[in-house]
């Protein structure tokens, strides 16, 4: 893994920050020893690891996250999940809505329950590490991206009122209803960046109009080129059709390949030149 260079003061969007946080998202899939050792190599000697089980409508699952920091930046990263298990999370669009804890709209119940399992510990770690007013970055891939977005919302709309300086997600599914998305977009304009890789099916689920994405989308086309602006509907469908499976819940070879966090990291490295 390339050693990331985390920008010490996060102001707006940068590819270097995106690349570093994509690697932080990949690291979230590992065990506590690997995470703490790697974070130290990255110049973040403070690191706390969390893994908690919780009950949901599906079989028992767990949430894993870590918070790492130094004198300038605090990074929160959530682990994603295997495509086969993610299929269960995404299968029922209408039956899995729950009120946002801060009354901003509705959110995916499974994602909300997963965040509940670790959120108090994560918030406590962020509050304790951020004694110097450090920048806060929140990140995650796949399910981890959904948790990152929801965690940023809870921090801002809850009692702590913490506003993350950067929220970068990769292959994130839709997490909330349009009302919640609008509230989030107003608060996180210029701070939220949602990366989508060409045939990755996960960002297209659960389906609209019940669920809605937050802005701002950064899209990699079929050649791995970064499109900084949203494509037209026709152009987007043409790009995504390359290698797309007929059944969106099948999560076929191309959809899984494009969903992998290492593909996002490689595309970001290409974009950085």
TrEMBL record:
Where the record annotates domain Fungal lipase-type, the positions are 75-208
Which Pfam family is one of this chain's hits? Lipase_3
Read off the InterPro entries from this record.
AB_hydrolase_fold (IPR029058), Fungal_lipase-type (IPR002921), Sec_MonoDiacylglyc_Lipase (IPR051218)
Q: What is this protein called?
A: Fungal lipase-type domain-containing protein
Q: Which organism is it from?
A: Nocardiopsis rhodophaea
Q: Which taxonomic lineage is given here?
A: Bacteria, Bacillati, Actinomycetota, Actinomycetes, Streptosporangiales
């Amino acid at each position: 893994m390339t050693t990331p260079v985390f920008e010490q003061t996060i102001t707006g969007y940068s590819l270097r920050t995106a690349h570093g946080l994509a690697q932080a998202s990949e690291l979230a899939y590992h065990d506590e020893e690997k995470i703490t050792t790697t974070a130290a190599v990255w110049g973040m000697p403070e690191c706390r690891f969390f893994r908690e089980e919780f009950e949901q409508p599906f079989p028992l699952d767990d949430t894993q996250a870590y918070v790492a920091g130094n004198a300038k930046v605090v990074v929160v990263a959530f682990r994603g999940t295997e495509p086969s298990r993610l299929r269960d999370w995404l299968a029922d669009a209408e039956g899995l809505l729950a009120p946002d804890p801060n009354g901003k709209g509705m959110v995916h119940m499974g994602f909300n329950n997963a965040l509940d399992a670790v959120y108090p510990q994560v918030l406590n770690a962020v509050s304790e590490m951020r004694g110097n007013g450090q920048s806060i970055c929140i990140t995650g891939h796949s399910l981890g991206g959904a948790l990152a977005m929801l965690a940023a919302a809870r921090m801002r709309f809850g009692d702590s009122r913490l506003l993350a300086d950067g929220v970068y997600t990769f292959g994130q599914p839709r997490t909330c209803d349009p009302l919640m998305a609008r509230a989030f977009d107003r608060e996180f304009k210029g701070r939220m960046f949602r990366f989508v890789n060409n045939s990755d099916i996960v960002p297209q689920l659960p389906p609209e109009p019940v669920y809605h994405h937050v802005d701002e989308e950064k899209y990699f086309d079929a050649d791995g080129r970064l499109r900084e602006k949203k494509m037209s509907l026709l152009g987007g469908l043409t790009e995504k059709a390359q290698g797309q499976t007929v059944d969106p819940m099948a999560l076929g070879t191309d959809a899984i390949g494009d969903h992998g966090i290492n593909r996002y990291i490689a595309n970001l490295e290409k974009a950085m030149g």
